Amino acid sequence: MPEKIEGKVIPLPQDNIDTDQIIPAQFLRFLKKEGLGKYLFYRWRYDENERPKADFVLNDPRFKDGTVLVSKKNFGIGSSRENAVWALTDYGIKAVLAESFGDIFYGNSIKNGLACIKLPESIINDIIEKAKEGKLTVTIDLLNKKVVYAGKEISFEIEEYARRRLISGESEIEYTLSHYSKKIEEYERNMKSFVKTNFNEALRKLLEG
Amino acid sequence: MPYSIIDKIWEAHEIAKEDEMSLLYIDRHLTHEVTSPVAFSDMKKKGYKVRRPDLSLAVMDHNVPTDSKVNPTIDELSKQQMDALWENSKTFNVPLLDFYSPYQGIIHVVGPELGFSLPGLTIAAGDSHTSTHGALGSLAFGIGTSEVEHVFVTQTLWIKKPKQFKIKINGKLNKGVSAKDVALYIIGKIGTGGAIGHIIEYSGEAVSDMEVEGRMTLCNMSIEAGARTAIVAPDEKTFSYVKNAPLAPKGSEWEEAVKYWESLKSDPNAKYEKEIEIDASSIKPMVTWGTNPAMVIPIDGEVPYPSEVKDESLRAEYERALKYMGLNPGQKITDVKVDYVFIGSCTNARLSDLIEAAKVVKNKKVSKGVKALVVPGSEWVKRTAERLGLHRIFIEAGFEWRHSGCSMCIAMNSDRLPPGKRSASTSNRNFENRQGPGGRTHLVSPAMAAAAAIYGHFVDVRNVEISEVV
Ligand code: SF4
User: Fold this and answer.
1) Ligand 1 near B409 CB (within 6 A)
2) Cβ(B108)–Cβ(B132) under 8 Å?
């Protein structure tokens, strides 16, 4: 992952964009994560006959090459579907700027190298306003925690772990295994006995009646 | 330092801390066919194993057909996902409640009812409504697919400790007002983002009075206020609910467990970043009018006027929602007619929910032109309801009586709300297209949904005749 992300801004000035809108449930029935970009914002992007709706921003030629989405409050609330992040990244979105994010969506985005940056309402509104003509690019500088656009430099806050992981792109599972396997084993040795389950066996008994 | 129940469970499971992230041990992991395939295939590719199959449980629920077990209506893609879960559960040795299992159901219904989910545990599932299990007094997190894989391989989760939000519900609920109405009322008050970054702890007289299944409804819906999860401290009601569950600890382990669970109450001076108090007696039966659960009004209310909303983006949202929902400002909600009634989902398809609905339905008929279905939350709920004769009440009234599954809550199987049609639904999301492309969803309690089925429009269930059913 790069320390800097640069791209053209796509404005989506709406609160409460839930993950059902980002990717509808019917496209959750695949067995892979690749190829979801064409279903991104499916119901807003296409009509019943799968023709692009002219009034939706992703169908506007001026924003065709956009890679940074800017939205308002509570972006990505609702369903935990990581497919929402996969649809965005598969489409080519590298970062989302918003006033706030749904918690699970935010966590998912970091794991997939999608930078979600929280900015104050006034900045978001300014970026949206300036992005209207399809000519605004922004740079997200993860190293210095700054967003740069139209000659302005805005500092942002980001959790250190999120920033580290976005920059390094390292596998969390490998990290946990190599650093904490011993501690996990130790924890398991001391677990309260009621926590353990013989679920397989109990289930078998239950099923055998 | 005084501890809340959240602090107590958190600390008992925290293996390590780095920056703001904690590594939490996860005691129970539930998984379903939709959010697991990518995790499993990545594990295969990398040669990972499931670390603790004994603490894991797989369930088919999201796209299972509900019309028949013998001759089910199912599309190819859904079948592929169900088959993949079957195969993966074999490959990785994870216990599975298959489509044909007599204990199949929605994960958030079967976890607690089987005793797989217990108080004092950390629970994770690749599904946002995992918060439901918090009603037992556990810390239960909905997670994404990358995290599903992390939990499978390491039995742990990296998570930033959320802030804590205490919601105290004082006083008594009025007759005809249920946990669902409380949940909708709270979301209406604090908004869809009102609890982002927080874990909600519910307490107060109305919560103590509530049965465990009602608390599940409350914790379930907390996600719709943006909460990371929600919890209710376990009490005598919780213990007797859990005790009957087939997989609950037995003998001396039960004694040990209850002793521990009793210690989990929040200390009197525990610190919360946010606190609100709510007066239970002021809550009426609620109906959503818009396209997120915060767009909600009491049954005697009217659809709001966007012009009266000061905030510009909220006004735009209201206008958009009214257009999508086909409603006019000032319209009485009791004048709104419904085409479909869906009694189901992990929010409101447990036995007590079906009983509340049946009380309204008994000796009445579904209004002409309304299609009404009951989709029990699990096959166990279905069998128990049948033992009580509830299915007869529903079927005689004109309801369809289905097998369990997520069904029209998410419309991944063939149960869909057609374009332009309007539903009264006991599920949790009234998002655009959620119950089917172009469908219009109004969220209500089971009793309110049942009443809407009978009258063909929304009615105040407090004025409807209620019969005894059990
Ligand atoms: S019933 Fe609905 S909300 Fe609950 S798990 Fe199924 S799809 Fe999700």
Assistant:
1) yes
2) yes
